[in-house]
Design a protein that fits this description.
With 308 residues, the chain is of the alpha/beta class. It contains 10 helices and 13 strands.
């Protein structure tokens, strides 16, 4: 795959959970990687993932249109991983998930770069959620306006720095209770972060364009089952308490005022639908990738929470 060697790729959101893993894969495949970030000093941990000079950290604010234009103009491939799980102020979802993507797309149209957007599984099904609507609107804008694009919709991503299992494992250290919002019946198809990266690299190697891929792991679990697996993995007994929807909404109204809320009203809306791969030809199977099971990976990175 020599045609990939030394291609310039800009990764927005490269210092995040998925970003740090994807950048390692990009470096292993001889890409030259640019990582725009508000604070380059906080991204220095990425440097050992590549050879000297292979990873370039660039000071960048998403409101800087001129620098955005220059970054895209100087790139063969643009990858956007930026996403937020809750709003710190009104309209954050649309400003970050939609408006920023729209500006990327408008610049790419002029330069004819290849754009990969990492969206989220199920955004086409959750009309009531601002999180999903903002992401889905961005996906539609990409499809309508670009000739060379790829949209990836992963399920709940797990791995060493994930926000789901680590958060509930930490909570189990001090709380005798773990919440089951609406009984914890919502189904998830967790996907290993390394498998998501392998999928993106394989898409690049196969030169696949203008498709929407859904990435899910090999197994489907309810929210309740995920917490049970977590507790079994770290050898802790906790009470899983049923939280009715009305009570959950009241809790969310309080949590939303905190800097890092445990629960928001928008997240409750997301729990109304299962988060699983449905009726699509473009999955890991299309790429001949066998995704790894959650239960094989969790024990390794949650052992620091384990009770012996």
């Amino acid at each position: 795959m020599d045609y990939l060697r030394n291609l310039k790729v800009t990764v927005f959101g490269g210092t995040g959970f998925l970003g740090r893993h994807l950048i390692k894969y990009l470096c292993d495949n001889d890409f030259i990687v640019k990582v725009p970030t508000r604070n380059p000093a906080k991204g220095y941990f990425l440097q050992p993932l590549g050879d000297v000079g292979q990873i370039n950290l660039i000071k960048f604010d998403i409101s800087d249109n001129e620098k955005l234009k220059n970054l895209i103009k100087d790139s063969d491939i643009v990858i956007n991983l930026i996403g937020i799980l809750y709003e710190k102020k009104r309209n954050d979802f649309f400003e970050i998930h939609y408006d920023f993507v729209k500006r990327i797309v408008n610049n790419i149209k002029l330069n004819k770069n290849f754009f990969i957007q990492v969206s989220a599984l199920g955004v086409n099904k959750f009309e009531n959620s601002l999180y999903s609507k903002s992401k889905f609107d961005a996906d539609k804008y990409i499809e309508k306006n670009l000739k060379k694009f790829l949209i990836i919709r992963p399920g709940l991503i797990f791995g060493p720095e994930d926000d789901f299992f680590n958060k509930f494992a930490k909570m189990s250290l001090f709380s005798p209770l773990l919440p089951l919002i609406m009984g914890g019946k919502t189904k998830f198809q967790p996907v290993y972060v390394e498998d998501v990266c392998k999928g993106i690299i394989k898409i690049l190697k196969k030169n696949i364009k203008n498709k929407i891929f859904e990435f899910g792991g090999p197994d489907i679990f309810s929210f309740k089952e995920l917490l049970q697996i977590l507790l079994k993995t770290i050898n802790r007994k906790r009470i899983l308490i049923y939280i009715p929807r009305k009570i959950a909404i009241l809790m969310a109204k309080f949590f939303q005022i905190l800097p890092n809320p445990l629960l928001t009203e928008d997240q409750i809306k997301l729990l109304d639908n299962d988060n699983i791969v449905l009726n699509t030809n473009y999955t890991f199977r299309y790429l001949d990738i066998n995704p790894v099971s959650l239960e094989l990976i969790l024990p390794e990175y949650l052992k620091r929470f384990k009770k012996y």
